[in-house]
Amino acid sequence: MLFLLRSTKQSLKLAIEETKFQGGVGLPKNLANAKMKDGKVVAEEVSGDIESILQMLESEDGLTADTVKALPPDITLSGDAIKRREQQEQLKALISEGNYLARRVAVRSLAREQKLEAVPTLLFAMTDPDKNVVREARDALRFISRRLDGFGLKDNFTEEERNKAVQAWRNWYLQVRPEAELEE
């Protein structure tokens, strides 16, 4: 009898750990247009051009976690060089003064678009008070540098670990671009 209780308890524990949603946590607010994607319920992606997405990111009131989740995973900037430069400047401005959700999206988008030119802005994002923004910047620097392990900054980092990682990334960038000038 006891072995049945023990095995049932173990089976239930495994079933609970494999559950994607518990009590509606993580579900989008509007389920009318929700779809299943990779075993998860996701809201319908926001459609529209990059200009409307940037306007949404810049607006303080319309940005929620659900709207950020509904954004396409890779935001593609304009093909026109002048517009592209303006959009990159908008993303840089969002990183320095946008709300935390907009900063996360801006860091991810800038990393995918700019290559090494984005590193100074990403180093600034590494000092952000929101740890999620710092994680995005860390991952972006890993992506740009092709250093998959980065400089050892864990997801749950301390302030001292962050400072060491920022300094290591600064040193790396100055080795790659010795003529670069970085702000302190």
In words, what does this structure look like?
Helix 2 (50-58) runs parallel beside helix 4 (81-97) and helix 6 (119-125) runs antiparallel to helix 7 (131-145). This protein has helices spanning 2-18, 50-58, 65-69, 81-97, 100-114, 119-125, 131-145, 159-176; strands at residues 35-37, 40-42. The radius of gyration is 20 Å and the shape is globular. It has one domain (30-176). By secondary structure, it is mainly alpha-helical. The longest helix is centred in the C-terminal third of the chain and has 18 residues, at 159-176. The protein has a two-stranded antiparallel sheet with strand order 1-2. The protein is built from eight helices and two strands; from the N terminus they run αββααααααα. The mean pLDDT is 75. Strand 1 and strand 2 form a beta hairpin.
Structural class assignment:
mainly alpha
% residues in beta strands: under 5%
* Largest β sheet strand count, sense and barrel closure: 2 strands, antiparallel
Chain-averaged pLDDT: 75
Helix content: 55-70%
- The total of beta strands comes to 2
Distinct helical segment count: 8
SSE succession: HEEHHHHHHH
